[in-house]
Amino acid sequence: MRLDKLKAQMTSRVSITWKSFLLRAEPKTGDRDAFLEYTKSWLRPAEVEPDVTFTVWASDEDQPSSSVPAHVAYKTVEAIAPELAKPFHDRLMRGYFTDNQNIADSNVLMALAADVGVDPDALAAAGVERRNEFTNAVIEEHNSAISNNVTGIPTVVFENQFPVPGAQPLEAYVRLVERIERRLD
């Protein structure tokens, strides 16, 4: 992804922290035809993001009813195996946008975590023991984003004060980092 390239190109100048923004905050079972139509909109970012494969939903699996479980699973992995958080994030994205997996399903989340080396027993135990803590953290991050005028994904926030909505070319991110550095000096 572009942000990975930005980090690689500007290693000591950029750090990335993933924050929760809920696309489906409330659990709901939507109209499957409407969901299938919605996934066609994934073809737009596919045109400008060559490092990610977006697949229009072609799975017989149910569509995710909420994005909360995936965010909570990420927070759990981040807590118990921080070195696997980024690989798990990437696997979640691929699971949903490429493989059309229901990332609201706990069995799917466990399998995706295992794919990147997370101990399933440790994940399950931490998920039960700390579910409320991680759920609250997800909700707080989402509410913070809303209060800071974030309205969708992707939104990149530089220095906790400069939000840039929408996917931008790598060169635009580099220019923004350089401009912000000059402005902060």
Give your account of this protein's structure.
The structure is a single chain. This protein has 185 residues and is mainly α. It has a single domain (2-184), classed as Glutaredoxin (3-Layer(aba) Sandwich). 55% of the residues lie in helices and 4% in strands. It has nine helices and two strands; from the N terminus they run ααααααααββα. It has helices spanning 2-9, 32-39, 43-48, 68-80, 85-98, 106-115, 120-129, 131-147, 170-184; strands spanning 155-158, 162-165. The longest helix has 17 residues, at 131-147. The mean pLDDT is 88.
The strand count comes to: 2
Number of helices: 9
CATH topology: Glutaredoxin
Strand order of the largest sheet: 1-2
Describe what is shown at a glance.
This protein has helices spanning 2-9, 32-39, 43-48, 68-80, 85-98, 106-115, 120-129, 131-147, 170-184; strands at residues 155-158, 162-165.
Features:
2 strands; Glutaredoxin; mainly alpha; 185 residues
